[in-house]
């Protein structure tokens, strides 16, 4: 009896010892000799709300693959049984881009290079580019840093190892395929910064645009190009300047300085009249210059506002110091159709133009809900003989029929038949959308309000205000 009891005690002790060994010794993956990261000792250290670790390895900036660290000579000795009491320290990690600027919103993954069965620790990087992580003292780790989004084309994941918990603070720099280009733009004659300019770039196979200017005349761009790149800076009323630079991934071309010389200028004088030749006083006249840059594409023109003025009683206006080259004039007057943008070329010592406005009416329109309450339209469309001629929302109006002409026609290069930037409109105190300058005629108006749609006929007469409501109902397909 005593012998049987003794054998049972010995067998029980052996089973307990076997269970302890299985609990603390990491198990190899099937088909390989490396430890299985799924056998985690501290699963609670993972924050489930963070993005999952990438399932496929990604090349790091230092040429290694992201994923569980492979054993090395310095970390081959895996301790089978860890002590129950583990000393830890808080490590502060700063994440920066290749140009030492903090990068917030990403995350850090810490892989232990010893006790390979441990779970990786993941922590978020705050908006200021810092993260704090608790690491076991005396155990080397590899830190993998990731940007906010793995699809972010600006930055690439990067690694740092070995890192120890008692280091206090370390910095991880992300990689980048872009080259940083920065500098400033100045007026050649005075050295004053130009706050409005356009930057374009060109290679043999690619071109594009960059910043539209910044206070202090500075620019700071990331360009995803390499090799020789032609940079062009343009500003209103000034000759563009071009420079060739050589870009490399992760590089920084800094302290570039562009000094733009002023173009020759002249005086623009003009007169605004109606169809019958009557002078139109009190009309608003807006002028801008167009400075070409880039590869000569008509879209590669820098738009520079030159101000606005009003016509006098005789319909006359004038602008001084207008750069030679292409300019754009736009004229508005209540109960006249706006001109849209009329482009012409300033040449010689000055230019004189005459702009003809077409008389038009004003439209006040709103929707009426099924319960009888009124609704200011989210947008409207006007059609004439089935063709769309005007569209508007609360921010502005565009109309195909708005146009004007310059007598003689030889100096006119183009018309913007859709009103360019869009004409302003307003909402009055009764909830009507008010549109000025609608050409006379019979229209079908479509009103949309909070998913409901209404249609109605409307007649607009020059010099008068037409008021109409559209009964709103289910939107048509």
Summarize the structure.
With 477 residues, the chain is mainly beta. 5% of the residues lie in helices and 46% in strands.
Summarize the topology.
Layout (H helix, E strand, L loop, with lengths): L1 H23 L63 E9 L10 E6 L8 E4 L5 E7 L4 E6 L11 E6 L5 E5 L5 E9 L10 E5 L4 E3 L8 E6 L3 E8 L6 E7 L4 E9 L4 E10 L9 E9 L8 E10 L5 E8 L1 E8 L3 E2 L4 E5 L3 E10 L1 E8 L5 E2 L3 E6 L2 E7 L2 E4 L12 E4 L10 E2 L5 E6 L2 E9 L2 E9 L4 E7 L1 E2 L3
Parallel strand pairs: 1-7, 8-14, 15-22, 23-33
Antiparallel strand pairs: 1-4, 2-3, 2-5, 5-6, 8-11, 9-10, 9-12, 12-13, 15-18, 16-17, 16-19, 19-21, 20-22, 21-28, 23-24, 23-30, 25-26, 25-31, 26-27, 29-30, 31-32, 32-34
Can you tell me about this structure?
The protein is mainly beta and 477 residues long. The protein has four domains: 43-173, Immunoglobulin-like (Sandwich), CATH 2.60.40; 179-260, Sandwich (Immunoglobulin-like); 265-359, Sandwich (Immunoglobulin-like); 361-405 and 418-474, Immunoglobulins (Immunoglobulin-like, Sandwich), CATH 2.60.40. Helix content is 5%, strand content 46%. It contains one helix and 34 strands. The chain has a six-stranded antiparallel sheet with strand order 27-26-25-31-32-34, with no helix packed on it. A hairpin with a 4-residue loop joins β9 and β10 (207-209). The protein is flat and about 125 Å long. Mean pLDDT is 77; it is low at 27-66, 71-82 and 401-422.
């Amino acid at each position: 009896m005593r012998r049987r009891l003794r054998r049972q005690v010995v067998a029980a002790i052996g089973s307990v010892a076997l269970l302890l060994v299985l609990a603390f010794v990491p198990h190899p993956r099937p088909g390989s000799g490396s430890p299985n990261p799924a056998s985690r000792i501290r699963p609670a250290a993972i924050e489930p709300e963070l993005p999952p670790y990438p399932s496929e390895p990604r090349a790091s900036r230092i040429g290694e693959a992201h994923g569980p660290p492979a054993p090395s000579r310095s970390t081959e000795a895996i301790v089978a049984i860890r002590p129950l009491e583990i000393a830890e320290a808080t490590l502060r990690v700063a994440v920066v881009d290749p140009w030492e600027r903090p990068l917030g919103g990403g995350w850090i993954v810490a892989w232990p290079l010893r006790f390979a069965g441990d779970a990786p620790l993941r922590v978020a990087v705050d908006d200021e580019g810092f993260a704090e992580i608790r690491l076991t003292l005396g155990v080397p780790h590899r830190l993998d840093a990731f940007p906010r989004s793995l699809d972010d084309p600006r930055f690439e994941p990067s690694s740092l190892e070995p890192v120890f918990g008692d280091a206090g603070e370390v910095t991880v720099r992300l990689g980048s395929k872009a080259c940083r280009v920065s500098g400033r733009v100045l007026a050649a004659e005075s050295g004053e910064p130009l706050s409005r300019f356009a930057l374009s770039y060109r290679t043999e196979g690619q071109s594009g645009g960059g910043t539209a200017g910044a206070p202090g005349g500075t620019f700071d761009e990331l360009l995803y190009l390499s090799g020789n790149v032609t940079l062009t800076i343009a500003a209103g009323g000034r000759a563009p300047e071009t420079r060739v630079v050589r870009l490399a991934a992760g590089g920084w071309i800094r302290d570039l300085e562009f000094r733009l010389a002023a173009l020759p200028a002249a005086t623009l004088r003009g007169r605004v009249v109606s169809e019958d030749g009557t002078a139109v006083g009190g009309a608003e006249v807006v002028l801008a210059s167009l400075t070409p840059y880039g590869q000569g594409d008509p879209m590669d023109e820098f738009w520079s506002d030159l101000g606005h003025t009003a016509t006098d009683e005789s319909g006359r206006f004038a602008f001084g110091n207008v750069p030679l080259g292409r300019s754009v004039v736009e004229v508005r007057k209540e109960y006249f159709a706006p001109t849209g943008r009329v482009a012409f070329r300033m040449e010689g010592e000055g230019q004189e133009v005459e702009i003809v406005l077409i008389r038009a009416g004003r439209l006040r329109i709103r929707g009426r809900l099924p319960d009888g309450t009124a609704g200011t339209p989210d947008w409207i469309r006007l059609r004439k003989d089935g063709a769309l001629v005007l569209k508007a929302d609360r921010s502005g109006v565009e109309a195909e029929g708005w146009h004007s002409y310059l007598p003689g026609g030889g100096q006119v290069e183009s018309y913007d038949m859709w009103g360019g930037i869009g004409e302003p409109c307003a909402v009055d105190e009764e909830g009507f959308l008010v549109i000025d300058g609608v050409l006379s005629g019979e229209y079908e108006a479509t009103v949309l309000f909070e998913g409901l749609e209404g249609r109605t006929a409307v007649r607009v007469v020059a010099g008068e205000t037409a008021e109409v409501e559209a009964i709103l109902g289910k939107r048509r397909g």
